[in-house]
Write a structure and sequence with these properties.
Length: 201
């Protein structure tokens, strides 16, 4: 199979939307549905329902409820736990819905491995940041994290629709940064524990 420019752009769009679902499950799907409804992006044949009025209404309600729930202390952490599996599904759906130039035999492996994988990575990074914020601020900084996540989900979704290839590059840069920060958080902390252990003896 030859990868044309439009095919690669569709894959980049799918990965971008999937990454955005790691910040908010329903908001990127809502934005993709609205973009398709108004003719900005095409949808695969099996995902035309995403642009329908009933689907947009349900996604809008779910997105609003999810955004508001993340501002409730304690509920935000519970949502992080419960949203894990939903994020993987949303990442696969968001990516598969816009990869219109790929045959089904290729769409779903790419959507499941790439879409779900990238969604899981962004979800894990945001959950780690929230946990670190809770430890450092006693939960007072969590609304700031929630706002940043909502802005990130919205901005990344819109950017992926407008400039999918550029968005893909930015996602790679973001993931490299997250991996480095995560490594420093865990291994740097372990190094401190190792140094502190002899002193405690």
């Amino acid at each position: 199979m030859d990868l044309s420019w439009t095919t690669f752009a569709g894959i980049a769009l799918g990965i971008g939307l999937a990454a955005a679902t790691g910040f908010r499950v329903f908001l990127p799907l809502l934005i993709a549905g609205l973009a398709a409804h108004f003719g900005f992006i095409p949808l695969s044949e099996n995902f035309q329902w995403l642009a329908s009025i009933p689907a947009l209404a349900m996604l809008g309600t779910a997105a609003a409820a999810e955004i508001l729930a993340y501002y409730i202390p304690g509920v935000d952490h519970a949502l992080d736990v419960m949203a894990g599996p939903a994020t993987l599904v949303a990442g696969a759906v968001a990516s598969a819905a816009v990869m219109t130039d790929l045959p089904p035999s290729i769409v779903w492996p790419v959507a499941i491995i790439g879409g779900s994988g990238i969604a899981g990575l962004t979800k894990g990074s945001s959950a780690l940041i929230r946990a670190k914020s809770s430890l450092m601020t006693g939960g007072l900084g969590n609304p700031v994290v929630s706002t940043a996540e909502t802005i990130g989900a919205t901005g990344l979704s819109l950017f992926a629709i407008a400039l999918p290839l550029v968005a893909l590059v930015l996602i790679v840069v973001l993931l490299v940064w997250v991996v480095r920060k995560t490594g420093r958080f865990f291994f740097g902390r372990r190094k401190v524990d190792v140094i502190a252990a002899p002193r405690e003896r």
